[in-house]
Design a protein that fits this description.
Layout: E1 2-3, H1 7-21, H2 29-32, E2 42-44, E3 50-52, H3 54-65, E4 68-83, E5 87-100, E6 105-118, E7 124-133
Length: 136
């Protein structure tokens, strides 16, 4: 195992987060491109809701994106990460203010865990995502 946040881990996480940012703009497709296909994919929301299977995880991002029109004040702090040849995890803290179509704002902050598996084509895909609400 390679200890700490290697440049490779940071690059993969930042690429997925770039897709996740699009959810704040009502566009979940870029994030969903990172979700591995198959029933072993899971996600746990900050409220404790568990989604199992790639379609359920993708649908959750579609639902979350509804009514979003933009974001400000995004931050991210790496906490922990490690990898083998075929698996990688990253834990980080992130927060954002999301603007909604109704004029409201949602201030959100989480500690997030991503677990990735290397796919046959060599790309990294999410197999698990978990958020826990946090304070900035």
């Amino acid at each position: 195992m390679k200890n700490g946040f290697s440049d490779q881990i940071k690059a993969v996480v930042e690429e997925v987060l770039a897709g996740e940012i699009q959810i704040s703009y009502g566009n979940p497709a870029p994030y969903n491109n990172f979700v591995a296909e198959g029933d072993s994919v899971t996600a746990v929301s900050a409220s404790g809701r568990v989604m199992t299977g790639s379609e359920a995880v993708k649908q959750a991002s579609v639902t979350v994106s509804e009514g979003n029109i933009g974001e400000t004040n995004r931050f991210m702090e790496f906490i922990s990460g490690d990898m083998t040849d075929n698996m990688m995890y990253a834990v980080f803290k992130t927060g954002v203010t999301i603007s909604k179509t109704d004029g409201s704002l949602s201030d959100l902050c989480w500690v997030v865990t991503f677990v990735f598996r290397r796919q046959e084509d060599g790309r990294w895909a999410l197999v698990h995502r978990q958020n826990t609400r946090s304070k900035p």
